[in-house]
């Protein structure tokens, strides 16, 4: 563990470094530098920036290894910085832009007020996250890109490390653009899928599944999981769903799933199972975002999942660690 001075001063520096990183992502600097170095004036003109201000950001980006000086007030992109290009596999550009989006940035900065009050300052200003996204299509698309990028290594871990029933129907509850469902169906060619999500999301899910050649094996329906979920599934996947809600609302979702599932079915919760010790863990970082953005949103420990599932008539049967800090919690009817 670093000593306390290193930890505290490092955290202060992280704010400044992230702001420079966000500027790089928002202005598309990596895309502009993708084909070779540019001097600061030319780069500023291409991305619509104030050259003297941009020069100071480039100096910070060079200090963390994302760009490098190329002589005559010019900068070149490094291999590390290439991860912010929008046209490369596993690009992190959308993820950085989403975390720096106005509402997210406000939410984290107002965390002290949230903790004092017990209610999210974000919700007070912007409403529930998904209402905010529905009202702002550009932000919604950016959020979808962020969730897709975040899900890639986790989804690959799910397909490799979990054994699905060969001929099951999987219902992906709040399945977003359908990338998780597509990955599972490709890995399990005899399975079928149903994706449920809100009306403003499902068209993009249909496009994804059609592009993946899965339109004949996957149905997409719009709906509200607080009202009901599609019946007759053998596997119900809740990926990054329950942590958005407090125990009362999460229990409503689980009860709807329990009522809809086939006998002998199973529920898979793809989130984070918090450790019981005080060691650093990605889930504890994510929990600060849940606290800031949602009223009642929370990451949960194994015992907390077990108690919640028990109230819905389900038993926690195992937890599979998928890598990248993610866990798969499996539950079956009691």
Q: What do you see in this structure?
A:
By secondary structure, the chain is α/β, with parallel strands linked by helices. The chain has two domains: 4-87, Winged helix-like DNA-binding domain superfamily/Winged helix DNA-binding domain (Arc Repressor Mutant, subunit A); 104-333, Vaccinia Virus protein VP39 (Rossmann fold, 3-Layer(aba) Sandwich). It is 50% helix and 17% strand. It contains 15 helices and twelve strands. It has helices at 4-27, 29-32, 40-47, 51-63, 93-99, 102-109, 111-117, 121-126, 129-135, 137-161, 179-187, 199-211, 247-260, 282-293, 302-311, and strands at 38-39, 67-69, 74-77, 169-173, 192-197, 218-222, 235-239, 266-271, 273-274, 300-301, 314-323, 326-333. A seven-stranded mixed β-sheet has the order 6-5-4-7-8-12-11, with helices on both faces. α14 links the parallel β9 (273-274) and β10 (300-301). α9 crosses α10 (137-161). The protein is globular, with a radius of gyration of 22 Å. Residues 18-82 form the O-methyltransferase dimerisation domain. Residues 111-314 form the O-methyltransferase C-terminal domain. The active site is at 243 (proton acceptor).
């Amino acid at each position: 563990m670093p000593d306390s001075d290193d930890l505290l001063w490092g955290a202060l520096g992280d704010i400044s470094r992230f702001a420079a990183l966000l500027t790089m992502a928002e202005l598309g600097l990596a895309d502009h530098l993708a084909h070779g170095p540019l001097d600061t004036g030319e780069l500023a003109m291409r991305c619509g920036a104030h050259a003297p201000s941009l020069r100071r950001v480039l100096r910070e980006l060079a200090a963390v290894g994302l760009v490098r000086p190329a002589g005559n007030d010019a900068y070149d992109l490094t291999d590390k910085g290439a991860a912010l290009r929008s046209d490369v596999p596993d690009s992190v550009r959308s993820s950085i832009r989403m975390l720096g989006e106005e509402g997210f940035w406000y939410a984290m900065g107002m965390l002290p007020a949230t903790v004092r009050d017990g209610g999210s300052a974000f919700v007070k200003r912007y409403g529930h996250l998904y209402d905010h996204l529905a009202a702002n299509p550009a932000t919604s698309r950016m959020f979808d890109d962020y969730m897709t990028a975040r899900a890639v290594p986790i989804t690959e871990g799910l397909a490799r490390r979990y054994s699905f029933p060969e001929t099951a129907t999987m219902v992906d509850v709040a399945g977003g653009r359908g990338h998780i469902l597509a990955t599972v169906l490709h890995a399990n060619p005899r399975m079928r899928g149903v994706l449920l999500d809100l009306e403003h999301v499902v068209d993009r899910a249909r496009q994804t599944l059609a592009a993946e050649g899965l339109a004949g094996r996957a149905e997409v329906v719009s709906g509200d999981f607080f009202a009901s979920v599609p019946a007759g599934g053998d596997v119900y996947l809740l990926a990054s769903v329950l942590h958005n809600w407090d125990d009362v609302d999460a229990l409503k979702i689980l009860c709807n799933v329990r009522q809809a599932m086939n006998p002998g079915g199973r529920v898979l919760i793809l989130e984070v199972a918090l450790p019981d010790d005080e060691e650093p863990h990605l889930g504890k970082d994510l929990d600060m975002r849940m606290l800031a953005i949602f009223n009642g949103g929370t990451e949960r420990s194994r015992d907390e999942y077990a108690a919640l599932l028990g109230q819905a008539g389900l038993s926690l049967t195992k937890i599979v660690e998928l890598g990248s800090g993610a866990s798969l919690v499996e539950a079956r009817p009691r």
